[in-house]
């Protein structure tokens, strides 16, 4: 393909995605630090100090405490996060098991005493607004998929930008920034330089972001595929009238998969479970295995393990895309670098917008500009 | 690196153009993966690998590189 065609690809993919990418980069910047910001705002409770060897109480007591706090609601999930919220269980409840996935209320329970610590507001506050703008534009699954498509266009814009970098740099040294010839030439050089050095990071964060927008679809496929296989024997049975102990489910799962820790339990009839099972999701201890959840399906009536398997490749891909998008897997220094790379991407997007707005609608002049390394007529003042 | 334009106006090969971006990309990729695979020094490898593009941006944006 020639330069003109690549230029048109770069121009049009960029024009369509830039406004949304700017929104994603700007809302994403505070989200990198959401853990710290919420801690700072006092939005998170900590469990009171007790001796380190205080045993954890039965999950059945935790469940009772949550039900007593919100009578009439049903438990759908229990979450653990030992790194950030030790000795706590986040219980997500809803008016009915089949309420919309995000119609949850939360109760935080101390996992040692079964005392209710907090009822966090899950759907208000500045961080929630930034999160929703970043994830789905307050438009649910269609909004999520739309942003995923913008991420794909961004990837095409990045790749076509690298192709155009070749003719542009034919006669220039790496790192050339001509600051005093014209404002346009300075920003053209910066756009090329900042874009090419952040290329790999931007592509990875863009593509993993797009993969994350497919999470609901990927998990729905897993339910139809692997989970359906594991629960095939229950397919024609009516849902149980009475379900048994969640503590027994926890013990059965941990006995079946040693050396792993609790991540979440999905209640019978909730998303990520069958009507007959508690699905206990476990995680490992290394940075990689802590992201790769493994489900253990436990019969909710008998408390016996039905099956546990490693997730299929497409769910593993989704799980590993999350840290690579969030930048939350290498401590505070990595978060700061993530933020700086995000700011550089904002500058690349902004300079691209400036170069487009400043050039009018003709194609031949920017193409001449690229082929001559920015020295085409009109740049030299 | 010398950034004068007029003194070196011969065409550069693909490798000359992409030599630095290529190595920056390789180090970024190593940085992206390293902290995922381990803690401690592997986190530090990530910080260094991914700090390189940031440092280069600062160096050429604010450095004395004009012709």
Keywords:
heterodimer; A: 381 residues; alpha+beta; B: 67 residues; 2 helices; disordered N terminus
Describe this structure in words.
The complex is a heterodimer of chains A (381) and B (67). Chain A is α+β, with helices and mostly antiparallel strands and 381 residues long. Chain A is 51% helix and 13% strand. Chain A has 12 helices and 8 strands. Chain A has an 8-stranded antiparallel beta sheet. In chain A, strand 7 and strand 8 (305-308) form a beta hairpin. The longest helix of chain A is centred in the first third of the chain and has 30 residues, at 3-32. Chain A starts with a helix and ends in a 10-residue tail after the last helix. Chain B is an all-alpha fold. Helices cover 69% and strands 0% of the residues of chain B. Chain B contains 2 helices and no strands. Chain B has helices at residues 14-37, 41-62. In chain B, helix 1 runs antiparallel to helix 2. Chain A binds chain B through residues 165-166, 169-180, 190, 193-194, 196-201, 204, 286-288, 320, 323-324, 329-331, 333-334, 337-338, 340-341, 344, 373, 375, and chain B through 1-5, 8-12, 14, 17-21, 24-25, 28-29, 32, 34-39, 43, 46-47, 50-51, 53-54, 56-57, 59-61, 65-67.
Blueprint of the fold:
The complex is a heterodimer of chains A (381) and B (67).
Chain A lengths: L2 H30 L1 H7 L18 H11 L4 E8 L3 E10 L10 E6 L5 E3 L7 H10 L4 H29 L14 H15 L1 H15 L1 H16 L15 H11 L4 E6 L10 E7 L10 E6 L5 E4 L4 H14 L4 H27 L6 H8 L10
Antiparallel strand pairs in A: 1-2, 1-5, 2-3, 3-4, 5-6, 6-7, 7-8
Chain B lengths: L13 H24 L3 H22 L5
Helix pairs in contact in B: 1-2
Gyration radius of chain A (Cα, Å) is 25 Å
Shape of chain A: elongated
Number of contiguous helices of chain A: 12
Structural class of chain B, by secondary structure, is mainly alpha
**How much of the polypeptide of chain B forms β-strand, as a percent range?**
under 5%
Largest interface: A-B, 42 and 42 residues
Oligomeric state as shown: heterodimer
Q: Classify the secondary structure makeup of chain A into a structural class.
A: alpha+beta
Calculate Rg of chain B over CA atoms.
16 Å
Q: List the uncertain runs of chain B.
A: 1-7
Strand order of the largest sheet of chain A: 4-3-2-1-5-6-7-8
Q: Count of DSSP helices of chain B?
A: 2
Q: What is the overall pLDDT average of chain A? A: 93
Q: What summary fits the major beta sheet of chain B?
A: none
What is the tally of beta strands of chain B? 0
Task: Name the helicity range of chain A.
Answer: 40-55%
Note the overall shape of chain B: elongated
């Amino acid at each position: 393909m020639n330069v003109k065609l690549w230029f048109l690809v770069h121009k049009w993919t960029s024009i369509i995605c830039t406004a949304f990418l700017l929104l994603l980069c700007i809302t994403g910047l505070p989200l990198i630090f959401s853990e710290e910001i919420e801690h700072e705002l006092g939005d998170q409770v900590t469990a009171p100090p007790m001796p380190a060897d205080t045993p954890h109480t039965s999950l059945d007591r935790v469940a009772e405490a949550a039900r007593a706090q919100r009578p009439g609601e049903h438990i759908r999930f229990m979450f653990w996060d030992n790194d950030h919220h030790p000795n706590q269980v986040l219980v997500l409840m809803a008016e009915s098991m089949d309420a919309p996935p995000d119609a949850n209320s939360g109760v935080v329970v101390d996992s040692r005493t079964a005392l209710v610590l907090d009822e966090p507001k899950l759907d208000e506050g500045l961080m929630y607004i930034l999160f929703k703008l970043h994830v789905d534009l307050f438009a649910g699954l269609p909004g999520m998929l739309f942003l995923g498509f913008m991420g794909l266009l961004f990837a095409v814009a990045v790749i076509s930008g690298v192709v155009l970098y070749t003719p542009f740099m034919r006669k220039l040294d790496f790192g050339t920034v001509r600051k005093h010839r014209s404002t346009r030439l300075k920003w053209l050089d910066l756009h090329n330089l900042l874009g090419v050095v952040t290329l790999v990071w931007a592509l990875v964060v863009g593509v993993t972001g797009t993969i994350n927008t497919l999470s609901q679809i990927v998990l729905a496929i897993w339910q139809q595929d692997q989970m359906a296989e594991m629960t095939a024997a229950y397919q024609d049975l009516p849902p149980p009238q009475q379900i048994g102990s969640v503590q027994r489910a926890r013990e059965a799962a941990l006995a079946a998969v040693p050396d792993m820790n609790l991540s979440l339990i999905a209640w019978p009839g909730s998303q990520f479970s069958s009507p007959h099972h508690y699905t206990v999701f476990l995680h490992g201890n290394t940075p990689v295995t802590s992201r790769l959840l493994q489900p253990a399906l436990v019969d909710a009536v008998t408390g016996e393990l039905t099956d546990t398997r490693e997730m299929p490749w497409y769910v593993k891909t989704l799980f590993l895309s999350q840290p690579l998008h969030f930048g939350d897997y290498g401590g505070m220094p990595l978060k700061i670098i993530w933020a700086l790379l995000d700011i550089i991407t904002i500058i690349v997007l902004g300079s691209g917008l400036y170069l487009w707005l400043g050039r009018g609608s003709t194609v031949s002049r920017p193409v001449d500009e690229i082929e001559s390394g920015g020295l085409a007529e009109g740049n030299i003042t | 690196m010398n950034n004068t334009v007029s003194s070196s106006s011969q065409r550069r090969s693909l490798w000359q153009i992409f030599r630095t971006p290529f190595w920056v990309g390789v180090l970024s990729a190593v940085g992206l993966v390293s902290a995922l695979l381990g803690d401690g020094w592997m986190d530090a490898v990530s910080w260094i690998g991914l700090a390189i593009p940031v440092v280069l941006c600062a160096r050429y944006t604010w450095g004395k590189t004009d012709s």
